Amino acid sequence: MHPVEPGTLLRPAPARQDWSASRMGRFLEHIEAKTGRTFPDYETAWAWSVEHLEEFWAEIWEHFEIIDHASYETVLPERTMPGAQWFPGARINYTEHIVRSLRARSSDVMLKSRSQTNGSVDWTGERLLEEIGRIQAGLRRAGIGRGDRVAGYLPNIPQTVAAYLAVTAMGAIWCSVPPEMGPKSVLDRITQLEPSLLIAIDGYRWGAKDLSRAEDLARIRASLPEVPVVLLPYLDEHCAVPAGAVPWSGFTAEQAEIHFEAVPFEHPLTVLFSSGTTGRPKAIVHSHGGLLLEHYKAMGLHFDMSPEDTAFFFSTTGWMVWTLSVSCLLVGATMVLEDGDPNWPALDGPWSQWAVAAETQATYYATGSAYLAACAHAGMRPGHTWDLSQLREIQCSGSPLAADVAGWVYEAIHPDVLLAPTSGGTDICAAFVGASPLTPVWAGEMSCRPLGVAVESWDPEGKPLVGTPGELVATQPMPSMPVFFWGDENNERYLNSYFGAYEGVWRHGDWLIHTERDSWVITGRSDATLNRGGVRLGTAEFYAVLDGLTGIQDSMVLHFEDGGGMGQLVLLIDADDTADTDALEKTIRTGLRTELSPRHVPDHIVFVESIPRNPNGKRLEIPLKRIIQGAALGEVIDPGSVIRVEDIDETARRVHRALQPS
Fold first, then answer.
1. How many Å apart are CA 209 and CA 387, to the nearest integer?
2. How far apart are CA 430 and CA 415, in angstroms?
3. Torsion-angle region of residue 98: left (phi > 0), alpha (psi -120 to 50) or beta?
4. pLDDT at 88 over 80
5. CB 356 within 8 A of CB 336
6. Which range (30-39, 378-387, 478-487, 622-631) has the least confidence?
7. SS3 letters for 405-426?
8. What SS3 state is found at 334?
9. CA terminus-to-terminus distance, the chain
10. What single-letter DSSP state applies at residue 402?
11. N or C, which end of the chain is more exposed by having fewer CB within 10 Å?
């Protein structure tokens, strides 16, 4: 991996006359012809989409041929936040649109499942439609109807996709938690919803380990004694079904036609949970209409996806990316599912995400920025090891992508690929900043604001900034903003989460730089920003330097205030096993001083066994800092949301020792 300067142009935007090569380009050319407007570049089109918000979303509705059972009265009566009312009067169903695509491709493979538990399984559109109908029959026998909540304790496999679609087609509400979560993590989430049914597996295989979930499921059932359970045998297809549970085979025994419940735009579709880093996980309710329109726009326009595509989103069922990934079926794309450890038996082994992408002939691949960084630091060259010639776009999210790693993508994978670093959130199940087929790719930056998304970087007084970090804000409503938080009386937690800083404006909690190129850089969480003697330092600029240094597997920077002085800056390093830590420490200090400033040089460098991250790859700076300051692990974060949670106590002890006066 070679050093690459942030802002280096890695892929130019297509010429204006070539816009028709993408669906987004054709969509915008249609708007030009229809309205007489002209869009000389993407930024002009984006400005139209937010200035004429109602017109833009009406065009999305028409372009993607939304099926309505009652027409909408208007697009958006008032641009108010919170509380925007989108498409009042409309009656729709998200899942009906996926079923439309599946019926159009009934004989084609629509799901390609690659599982370390049960191997490779391909489902045609017809097979998936049959499973949806069978699950609905079981749901009806269980008394499930509109508004009821169904929880899935399930991995990323075809049956989970089918269950999600069957539940939501009926107007019931879906939520899923991945089976790697322990009982407390599961219960912290699903008990908030008072589910009417739980669908669970018996266990799964992670690499070489068989992990039974029998005891965990028993504990969950003990806390939810009134909730019926359906057991899907997965680890052991002949496993014993616990007393009182219904076997999957019996639950899905009856074949039936798929029923759709037409619901208002804002009717709950699914509940996604926050990571639990600031208390009990927020139960974020997303609507049929919000995700239908946002995801059609994303899949069809920004991702340029069609029935010609095979889309591989690496995700667990608890991440918003999983919910997004299912929406590739809206545009008729084939969906790839991987369940298992992509690093087993090695980062470049047969279960590598690259190996799965190659074997399934994925054209679109979405992963975590941390995974790309790990591959780059390991010296991998995926484009030389596997045939990835069909891969046209790589999206990454979860954390900022360093410029060096972005450069590595073009060197080690393919020089023509569209690299699409993206930042959004569980809160909107969509993107605030990202990429498009019509914009350039700059190293270490995100190339655009999505159409219809009015994002800016603001100072504390609410003035837009260019060139310096500010708060990421959304100044206009988005259809996929949460309907509400489940169990949040008077919307108090909802309001405090997003609308406490600027009246009527969504504050997301990220530091965002708007560059002179109209590109965008996330520099870290605004609540994790370091303040050294009154100077704000974004964590992402540290990682941009550290990610390029040989010998570092992972890193985390923490700042401990001292009441107005410089405080103490602590850098945690997970070094390679063969690294000379004394020499590496000197290299780190020199690199930060030279590339950034003397203020960025840490007071302490602490070598640790691992850096705490959640399953999505996000560094858990704030929870770790609070633990070091004396809080208990369970008070500040759900232990089930931490990778290698067993290392945290020792990490906290090492940092605590470093902070003690010598």
1. 29
2. 27
3. alpha
4. yes
5. yes
6. 622-631
7. HHHHHHHHCCCCCEEEECEEEC
8. strand
9. 39
10. P
11. C
Taking the CA atoms of residue 391, residue 95, residue 264 and residue 268 in that order, the dihedral angle to the nearest 10 degrees is -80
- Which helix (H) or strand (E) segment holds residue 20: the answer is none
**pLDDT at position 76, please?**
98
Per-residue pLDDT tens for 305-320?
A: 999 999 999 999 998 9
Is residue 481 within 8 A of residue 531, CB to CB? The reply is no
What are the CA-CA distances from residue 468 to residues 43, 446, 474, 597 (Å)?
A: 20, 15, 18, 16
- Judged against a pLDDT cut of 80, whether residue 538 lies above it is answered with no
In the three-class reduction of DSSP (H, G, I as helix; E, B as strand; rest coil), residue 365 is classed as strand
Question: Does 225 score more than 70 pLDDT?
Answer: yes
**CA 111 to CA 360: how far, in whole Å?**
10
pLDDT tops 80 at residue 526: no
- CA 284: distance to chain centroid? 14
Mind listing the pLDDT tens digit for each residue in 261-283? 999 999 999 999 986 655 578 99
* Rounded to 5°, angle at Cα 286 from 282 and 287: 155
Which residue, 579, 548, 560, 568, is CA-closest to 629?
560
Residue 452: the pLDDT is: 98
- Pick from 324, 323, 321, 266: which is nearest to 297 by CA? 324
Q: Are 158 and 152 in contact (CB under 8 A)?
A: no
CB burial of residue 649 (10 Å; 0-12, 13-18, 19+)? exposed
Residue 115, beta-bridge partner list: 119, 339
pTM of full prediction above 0.70: yes
Q: Is the pLDDT of residue 528 over 80?
A: no
Residue 662: the pLDDT is 67
Which residues share a beta bridge with 574? Answer: 554
Which pLDDT value is given to residue 89?
98
Return the SS3 of 172. Answer: coil
Q: Show the tokens assigned to 258.
A: 């798929």
Amino acid code (one letter) for 110: M
Provide the pLDDT for residue 236. 97
Mean pLDDT over the full length of the chain: 94
Amino acid at 156: N
Pair of tokens at residue 376: 């780059």
Measured CA to CA, the distance from residue 282 to residue 486 in angstroms comes to 8
Query: What residues contact residue 281 under an 8 Å CB cut-off, 6+ apart?
Result: 188, 189, 273, 274, 275, 638
Q: Confirm if 274 and 407 have CB atoms less than 8 A apart.
A: no
Q: 134 with 160: CB under 8 angstroms?
A: no
Q: Of 207, 209, 235, 178, whose CA–CA distance to 343 is shortest? A: 207
| Distance separating alpha carbons of residues 385 and 649, to the nearest angstrom | 39
Take residue 631 and report the two structure tokens written for it. Answer: 């809080």
The Cα 84–Cα 483 span in angstroms is 9
Instruction: Please report where in the chains the tokens 């009527």 appear, as a residue.
Output: 504
Residue 67: is its pLDDT beyond 70? Answer: yes
Alpha-carbon span 5 to 408, nearest angstrom: 12
Q: How far, in Å, are 134, 138, 144, 491, 598 from residue 253 at the CA level?
A: 7, 8, 17, 42, 68
**301 secondary structure, DSSP code:** I
* Lowest mean pLDDT across 88-102, 134-148, 181-195, 246-260: 181-195
